[in-house]
Design brief:
Elements (H helix, E strand, L loop, with lengths): L3 H9 L6 E4 L5 H8 L6 E5 L2 H13 L6 E5 L12 E5 L3 H10 L1 H5 L3 E6 L3 H10 L2 E11 L2 E10 L18 H17 L7 H11 L2
Parallel strand pairs: 1-2, 1-4, 2-3, 4-5
Antiparallel strand pairs: 5-7, 6-7
Helix pairs in contact: 1-2, 7-8
Length: about 210
């Protein structure tokens, strides 16, 4: 029913919470969460009418009209009050930051937010720390030559600055270590043009040498 990427996200959602999927497109994730009894109520949110129409068709297909609700919106601005968990996935780091900053107070009041992106991970971890969010879980998935980071966070006012570059909670398996080796090579190749990369290089080398 859903991709490995969406399954990874679904497995990170805390059971029993009301969930909103931002940029939901086909509403496959909200439907999956209901069908697998991870959540009892979900929202499929998108800023385009076309994707919401496709979402509606899937909701009707699985007969979930009383459990999955579609909303036309571009983020957290009109988030229903009963939402406890939010998923923001399939977007670049800057887009995710914009969504959060548009209603940071609402984001801080959530039980959890699950992010998935394939760009600028260290910068995004730093963004979360700056705004008082703590990372409580991280996963890594390399799929179809695309490297994906999954981050679960909540607002705590205190965030751990350690391992901003490589992550605090990721399992250092062969796939992720291979990714870090490739990143190290990329950073070393352009270090002369961007001296600020030396910090990232040193951190990655330290992890790889453990």
């Amino acid at each position: 029913m859903i991709s490995e990427r969406l399954k990874m996200i679904a497995n990170m959602v805390s059971k029993g919470l009301i969930v909103a999927d931002i940029g939901s497109d086909h509403a496959l994730l909200p439907c999956y969460l209901i069908l697998n009894q991870i959540s009892h109520k979900t929202y499929a949110i998108d800023n385009k009418k076309g994707p919401l129409q496709r979402a509606k068709l899937n909701i009707e297909k699985y007969e979930l009209q009383d459990k999955v609700f579609e909303i036309l919106d571009d983020g957290l601005n009109n988030l229903p009050r009963d939402v406890q968990s939010v998923v923001i996935a399939g977007m670049g780091e800057k887009t995710i930051e914009t969504i959060l900053l548009n209603d940071l107070a609402r984001a801080k009041g959530l039980d959890e937010i699950i992010f998935q992106s394939n760009t600028d991970w260290p910068e995004f971890r730093m963004f979360l720390k700056k705004h008082g969010f703590s990372i409580i879980d991280e996963k890594f998935l390399s799929l179809n030559k695309q490297d994906n980071l999954f981050v679960k966070a909540r607002y705590t006012e205190i965030s751990n600055i350690e391992n901003i570059v490589v992550g605090d909670l990721l399992i250092m398996d062969d796939a992720y270590l291979n990714y870090l080796e490739n990143e190290l090579q990329k950073y070393e190749d352009i270090l002369q043009f961007n001296p600020k990369l030396k910090f990232k290089i040193d951190v990655i080398k330290n992890v790889l040498n453990k």
